[in-house]
Write a structure and sequence with these properties.
alpha/beta; 7-stranded mixed beta sheet; 17 helices; 24% strand; globular; disordered N terminus; binds 5'-O-[(R)-(benzoyloxy)(hydroxy)phosphoryl]adenosine
Length: 547
């Protein structure tokens, strides 16, 4: 791709507005600049598949036994899916909550929705009632698309509960045994034409890791997400010879488009889906499919490095292991190449946009000690102090960013947007970083109140709200405590009026409230009072030091 290096663009006016629907678009002047410079190519996301299917109809798109599909087959399956969804009365612009495990039908469903102009709200298999209800309500979803079950969890029961409390949900579509709902595979799939897609429209919605309260919706446009996936594919040197293994949940930005599933489709590579990322299972899949690239979070990378000692596996096909989502400690980074015989790439990204990659030709020290540098020449990164002033080069500060694939506001969250974005449109990441002269970033912590447990972000506010609902609890605080395996563990500190509940009772209470399992506290502490800051907020820093 040819880049014109006129960036950063600093238009004199960067007015940010919100549409009546609650979407914050890119300001017109900046959007024009991204088009002129060739970052935005005016292609709908569904076109990535179309183009590859035309060029290489017989190449394998999806691997995996009976579910294997050539590009021509996947392309036609996606069209048929689009027609079926439209025939049900779901219209372009409608939102559909998608919650699927890592199965190859994920690709058919995703492209079916994209081709129909229907906006998928991509939730993770681990989300439960509290999150799904909130996301369905916030997005105004008309349908909820699930698999029948995963392990011993039955999504059909969850769907029945959610449907009772979210009146906009007209359909529950099930992959597998539908129970009392609609069988996704039984809907008729004929139709004449598909809607024309405006590439500046919302293509899909990702779910934020959450900084305050409940998760936010991140609306990504066709233009910005096509660039996200294709530029990532280029940085990773992805070609049609690559086989990508979707190890992390496919609805997450990292395996979806960094370069992940979408990047692989854009170059005509093959994709295999993995529902269980245990070393035994993952190694078997890598061996069977001759996987060349996959992405994991640091705890999984550590587990794989340890497991190779006792698992007898041939990982010789693997050329690139991407590790990101949370800070990978240098000692663990140094383990990867010798243990697994694969090149490491650190990825520091966020669903909101900005992606940083170590480059394939970076020296080993850079790969092991930094979290990469921005993907795009048009990514604008500032490192600022608490007053919003740029820090001296190499000093620690908060990362602020904007660019051709970073959102300008969360969907339907005007009040929060006032805090999470600067008036001139930079996203305040909440991440503390240092920038090296090469542009590489080292992530040193977070100012946002989020616990990162094995790559899963847990909002302290959200957890605290649920804890406070317990009848015995007067004050509650959640903090992350350092943990060798997970990065951070969830510690809940309670000030109670009566008897202190046990950890098991608290977990049960939160589970009954519909909270996802990964958000449950690992440790419970009792306190008589909580330390407060000057303005009366709970002083997390002091609290962390105490516990
Ligand atoms: C990825 O996206 P999210 O939205 O789940 O989480 C973003 C946050 C970042 O703001 C940062 O706090 C943390 O997760 N993070 C890292 C990191 N990668 C993400 N912290 C330290 N080192 C890293 N390498 O997690 C995500 C999205 C796309 C690609 C990769 C990760």
């Amino acid at each position: 791709m040819q880049y014109i290096s006129t960036f950063p663009v600093r238009p004199t006016v960067t007015s940010t507005h919100t549409t009546s629907d609650g979407y914050v678009p890119f300001p017109a002047a900046e959007a024009d600049a991204f088009r002129t410079a060739g970052y935005w190519t005016g292609r709908p996301l569904g076109d990535l598949l179309r183009a590859t299917a035309r060029q290489h109809p017989h190449r394998t798109a999806l691997l995996g036994g009976d579910a294997a599909r050539s590009y021509a087959q996947l392309d036609s399956d996606a069209d048929r899916m689009a027609h079926g969804l439209l025939a049900l009365g779901i219209a372009a612009g409608d939102r559909v909550v998608v919650q699927l495990p890592n199965v190859s039908e994920f690709a058919t469903v995703l492209f079916g929705l994209l081709r129909a102009g229907i906006i998928p709200v991509l939730t993770l298999p681990a989300h439960r009632r509290a999150e799904i209800e909130h996301l369905a309500q916030l997005s105004g979803a008309v349908a909820y698309l699930i698999a029948d079950r995963l392990g011993d969890f039955d999504y059909r029961e969850l769907a029945a509960t959610v449907q009772r409390s979210v009146p906009t949900l007209r359909h529950v579509l099930v992959l597998g045994d539908p129970g009392t709902h609609t069988d996704l595979n039984s809907i008729p799939r004929e139709g004449d034409s598909l809607p024309t897609i405006d590439p500046s429209d919302i293509a899909l919605m990702l779910v934020s890791g959450g900084t305050t309260g409940l998760p936010k919706l991140i609306a990504r446009t066709h233009d910005d997400y096509v660039y996200n996936a294709t530029a990532s594919a280029e940085v990773c040197g992805l070609t049609e010879a690559d086989v990508y293994l979707a190890t992390l949940p496919a609805a997450h930005n990292f395996p979806l488009a960094c370069p992940g599933i979408l990047g692989t489709i854009s170059v005509g590579g093959a994709i295999a889906f993995l529902t269980d990322p245990s070393p035994e299972n993952a190694f078997a899949a890598i061996e069977r499919h001759r996987v060349t690239v996959t992405a994991v979070v640091p705890p999984l990378a550590q587990l794989w490095c340890a497991a190779i000692e006792w698992e007898d596996a041939d990982l010789s096909s693997l050329r690139l292991l991407q590790v990101g989502g949370a800070r990978l400690a240098e000692v663990n980074a140094r383990d990867v190449e010798p243990a697994l015989g694969v090149k490491l790439q650190q990825v520091f990204g966020m669903a909101e946009g900005l992606l940083n990659y170590t480059r394939l030709d970076d020296p080993a020290d850079t790969v092991c000690t930094t979290q990469g540098r921005p993907l795009s020449p048009a990514d604008e990164v500032r490192v600022v102090d608490a007053d919003g002033n740029d820090v001296a080069p190499g000093e620690e500060g908060e990362l602020l960013t904007k660019g051709p694939y970073t959102i300008r506001g969360y969907y339907r969250a005007p009040e929060h947007n006032g805090r999470a974005f600067t008036p001139d449109g930079y996203y305040r990441s909440g991440d503390l970083v240092r920038r090296l002269p090469s542009g590489h970033l080292i992530v040193s912590g977070r100012i946002k109140d989020v616990i990162n447990r094995g790559g899963e972000n847990i909002s302290c506010d959200e957890l605290e709200e649920h804890l406070l609902a317990h009848p015995a609890v007067r004050h509650a605080a959640a903090v992350g405590l350092p943990d060798a395996a997970l990065g951070e563990k969830v510690c809940a500190i309670l000030v109670v009026d009566t008897t202190m509940p046990t950890l098991a009772e608290i977990k049960m209470f939160l589970t009954d409230r519909g909270l996802a399992t990964y958000k449950l506290p690992d440790i419970l502490r009792r306190a008589d009072t909580l330390p407060l800051t000057a303005v009366g907020k709970i002083d997390k820093k002091a609290l962390r030091a105490e516990v």
